[in-house]
Fold this sequence. Notes:
Layout: E1 7-8, H1 24-36, E2 42-43, H2 56-70, E3 76-79, H3 85-97, E4 102-105, H4 115-128, E5 133-138, H5 149-158, E6 162-167, H6 172-181, E7 189-192, H7 199-204, E8 209-210, H8 217-229, H9 232-263, H10 281-295, H11 301-311
Helix pairs in contact: 1-2, 1-11, 3-4, 4-5, 5-6, 8-9, 8-11, 9-10
Amino acid sequence: MHQDLSGILPVLPTPFTEEGGVDAAAMRRILRFALDAGVDGVVFPGFASEVETLSAGERETLLRVCVEEVGDTVPIVAGASAPTAEEVIGHGRQAVSMGVRHLMIQPPKTLGSSAEAVAGFMGEVSRGLPEARIILQNAPAPRGSDLSPETILAVVGQIPAITYVKEETLPAGPAISRMLEDAPSHLAGVIGGGGARYILDEYARGACAAMPALEIAAHHVALDRAYRSGDRELAREIYVRTLPLLALQAVYRMRLTKHVLMRRGVCENTIVRAPTPELDAQAIADIDACLAEIDALALPTGAASRMAGAIG
Length: 312
């Protein structure tokens, strides 16, 4: 089965200006950082993009920047989740009009967790977006509906437009295994979530891709390449080295991502709109120490040169 989404597909953060608006120039730098790191695709907007805080105009502006900067080099996944099918279709049509075909959609939590309700919603969306390839995002409670693998398989089986599932419930591993055991032929793959904190388990169970945050993209790419080439020892070494930072990222979220990108010379500030814990001096020292340990890891020549380009 052909998989045109595979590898490392980071969810891009939204940069803001000191005045509070979105920063298109910084977004271009973020995209260049991602591409220089060798990513296999980019995702915008998603939860890590603070999507709930963006206006429709801001979403359109920054998605257009993504399309302009990325071109045809790697796939773009556009987040199109919204409370109603009408809104989802609106977001989706906007993305499709820019040439984006992959849309990531989380069924609204208000639907509940029954296969009938979710399939009804996703069916309406797919009929309104006949050109789209849909990634069904299964987020954990309280943010999402925490759909069971059986429910997802029932929904996907009814809707051929759903070609991928992004599985983010915890533990994601058993759910990935269960879905891939009985996946319908049109399901091209299951993508891991959880910020790459469980990436090796997800890959071992057959996940085709991961959608982490962006701050250590070059290392995630190096891990992915090592794993796929059979060098599981290097993949695990990179994985273990990244875990302390990823544990902090689970707490400080977008603010940590922007702090690291500021250290890299990509972002100019760590301004966020979404409720996110502040970074005090001790937290910053901890993050910087974790980052230094990650950067001290000797990577293969190709990965090392890619990382140097990404952080230079």
